[in-house]
């Protein structure tokens, strides 16, 4: 009957939503380990979370891994906010925090390097030298022709 | 019209349709369920399950959305050719996020990521980036409560590579 069909359709809709939600959850979880480069999962750093504002679920938060709460795409997004002319120093500092962060920064720089146009920027060297320097400290990246580096400009930028 | 959202801890939030639509994830789910603004019956008879968001975090997300529901849709700036991202956090948003501990910010950011609320996601990213900005590695480690697992030799090697940015 029409009513039965409607009932079935409604059940199917609910199932579809539940399935979508489950797939979305799985996709996010898988994607959180979808690290560009060699594909290895970052070693977790431990994060103690205390909750003084809202207590619901606080117990579940104790001792979460940084990478569980900040999966790779999210961390990568944060690093992109640090990736400005002067804040590459922040990336250098981050790389010294732990093995995980060292790798995260390197992976991030790897994604930067692979963006279209980035090589031209490095090679033409007409603007800030810091971009080149940022890439320099990540030794696992294949490097470039540095003979024309504008060191005086770099020194000036560094002192600002 | 209102939409019912159900969190992982089975709390039901009834929110304005416009607020629900601020989340790309919720929008997609509503489409999948044939829920539309003009069809009250579809809105009343269905609820959207959000298994990755807890009640406490959802309340914060809704608070942010309430504030921004009338915002003009602004075109996000594309990253420049060096991949640098720029985002200005408004005074209200700074105030909204300033008392959140890092752990709470991470949770909120996880929810913004899952729900695909770009404005909130960018606000928190910028806030965390600001927290990192200007801090030495040991200060960052303390903030994140991370035990440094680098050996002395590894530290030395990294310092050597990053010597250009030392004071």
TrEMBL record, chain A:
Alphabetical list of SUPFAM superfamilies matching this protein: F-box domain (SSF81383)
Q: Which InterPro entries match?
A: F-box-like_dom_sf, F-box_dom
Database matches in CDD domains: F-box_SF
Annotated F-box domain ranges read 68-107
The record, for Pfam families, names: F-box
Q: What's the protein called, per UniProt?
A: F-box domain-containing protein
Q: Which organism is it from?
A: Pristionchus mayeri
UniProtKB/TrEMBL annotation, chain B:
**InterPro entries the record matches:** SKP1, SKP1-like, SKP1-like_dim_sf, SKP1/BTB/POZ_sf, Skp1_comp_dimer, Skp1_comp_POZ
Tell me which Pfam families the record gives: Skp1, Skp1_POZ
User: What are its GO biological-process terms?
Assistant: ubiquitin-dependent protein catabolic process
Which CDD domains does UniProt cross-reference here? BTB_POZ_SKP1 (cd18322)
Record domain SKP1 component dimerisation: where:
118-165
**Gene3D superfamilies given in the database record:** Potassium Channel Kv1.1, Chain A
- The answer, when asked if Metal-binding is one of the entry's keywords, is no
* Domain SKP1 component POZ: start-end pairs: 2-70
Question: Which SUPFAM superfamilies does the annotation name?
Answer: POZ domain, Skp1 dimerisation domain-like
Question: TM segments?
Answer: none
- Keyword entries, A-Z: Ubl conjugation pathway
Keyword field contains RNA-binding: no
Q: Which family does it belong to?
A: Belongs to the SKP1 family.
Q: What PANTHER family does the database record attribute to this sequence?
A: SKP1 (PTHR11165)
User: Which named protein is this?
Assistant: Skp1-related protein
Can you name the source organism?
Pristionchus mayeri
